[in-house]
């Protein structure tokens, strides 16, 4: 799905804390002259769907946070999860970063767990979230709410033209598997849109400017990925083609689906560098699986290895500087 120009605001998942974080950040930025609420397109996933509905309707975000805080502490119908089976939740998310599975197949497996989970009583919490939206109608501003079909793992996106009530779409997007029951819409059952991506930022493709608020970004810090990958390559990759590798940088896409991993081969010629890159590309799936196991990531990016040419440029620049210094010293000695 694309949008033609304009500005997009992407709001990711993160539970009740994520709602408060996003609402507080938006409110704070507005107080200092940066108004994110004027975006032409708003994409909401899980907690972001709640905040997105408020933003699109122009509601007071500070009041929204107070209402949700009251609900989460028992100040209204529907309280926070009490008897959540954390082992089931962890098992579900472990499936999502099993790189041997096709992503939709993995989501379908999680969906089957969600459908079988005995959490029907927690449906009252989602109903309360829907009732506390500022308006039960879709806003005039373009708002996209994401979900995942619990039966086949397919991705769903709802908007004002979908014929689905706003509250129902938000409830579905917030239905964390094995915590809340999947939500029935048009004969299908749907769960948390964050199962596909924490942000689903690709829905903002085509926008002239995109701001992504990702409460869970700290779970996949770029420096951590860089450090862990360097250790995994050193300790776990046994391919003899791999030389002395330095991981110089990691760039992760907004939706955490892909990561560019820049490496340099110390002391290697062009042939050694090419062989090392080929070996790392072959090991990418294995390294991705190990990353998920070590960091317990909800979304593990696909790894794409690239040679960092800046090392060559730096070495060449250093060589030129050394030559210039040596020539300068010779000239001084001759004078």
How many helical elements? Answer: 11
Give the SSE string: EHEHHHHHEEHEEEHEEHHEH
Q: How would you name the oligomeric state of the polypeptide chains in this document?
A: single chain
User: What level of helicity do the residues show?
Assistant: 40-55%
How much of the sequence is in beta strands? 15-25%
Q: Report, as a whole number of angstroms, the end-to-end distance.
A: 71 Å
Low-confidence stretches: 72-80
**Number of E-state strands:** 10
**Which structural class do the helices and strands define?**
alpha/beta
Mind telling me the C-alpha Rg?
A: 24 Å
The dominant shape is globular
Mean pLDDT: 84
The largest pleated sheet is described as:
7 strands, mixed
Secondary structure: elements and pairs:
Elements: E1 7-11, H1 15-31, E2 41-44, H2 47-56, H3 61-72, H4 86-96, H5 103-116, H6 123-131, E3 142-149, E4 155-158, H7 166-173, E5 183-185, E6 188-192, E7 209-213, H8 222-236, E8 245-252, E9 258-265, H9 270-282, H10 284-295, E10 302-307, H11 310-334
Parallel strand pairs: 1-2, 1-7, 2-3, 9-10
Antiparallel strand pairs: 3-4, 3-6, 5-6, 8-9
């Amino acid at each position: 799905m694309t949008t033609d120009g304009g500005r997009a605001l992407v709001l990711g998942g993160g539970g009740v804390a994520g709602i408060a974080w996003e609402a507080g950040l938006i409110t704070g930025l507005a107080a200092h002259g940066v108004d994110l609420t004027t975006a032409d397109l708003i994409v909401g996933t899980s907690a972001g769907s709640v905040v997105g509905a408020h933003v699109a309707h122009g509601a007071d975000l500070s009041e929204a946070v107070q209402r949700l805080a009251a609900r989460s502490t028992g100040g209204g119908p529907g309280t926070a999860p009490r008897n959540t089976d954390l082992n089931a939740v962890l098992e579900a998310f472990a499936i999502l970063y099993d790189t041997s599975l096709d992503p939709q197949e993995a989501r379908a497996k999680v969906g089957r767990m969600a459908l079988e989970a005995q959490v029907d009583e927690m449906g009252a919490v989602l109903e309360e979230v829907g009732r506390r939206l500022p308006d039960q109608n879709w806003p005039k501003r373009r708002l996209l709410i994401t979900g995942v079909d619990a039966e086949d793992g397919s991705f769903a996106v709802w908007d004002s033209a979908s014929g689905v009530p706003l509250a129902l779409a938000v409830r579905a997007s917030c239905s964390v598997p094995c915590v809340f029951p999947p939500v029935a819409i048009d004969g299908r059952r749907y769960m948390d849109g964050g199962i596909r991506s924490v942000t689903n930022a690709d829905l903002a493709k085509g926008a002239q400017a995109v701001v992504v608020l990702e409460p869970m970004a700290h779970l996949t810090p770029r420096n951590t990925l860089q450090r862990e990958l360097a250790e995994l390559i050193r300790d776990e990759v046994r391919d003899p083609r791999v030389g002395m590798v330095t991981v110089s940088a990691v760039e992760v896409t907004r939706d955490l689906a892909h990561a560019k991993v820049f490496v340099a081969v110390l002391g290697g010629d062009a042939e050694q560098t090419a062989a090392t890159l080929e070996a790392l590309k072959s090991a990418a799936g294995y390294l991705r699986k190990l990353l998920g196991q070590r960091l317990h990531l909800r979304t593990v990016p696909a790894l794409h290895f690239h040679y960092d040419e800046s090392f060559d440029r730096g070495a060449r620049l250093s060589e030129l500087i050394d030559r210039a210094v040596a020539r300068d010293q010779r000239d001084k000695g001759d004078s």
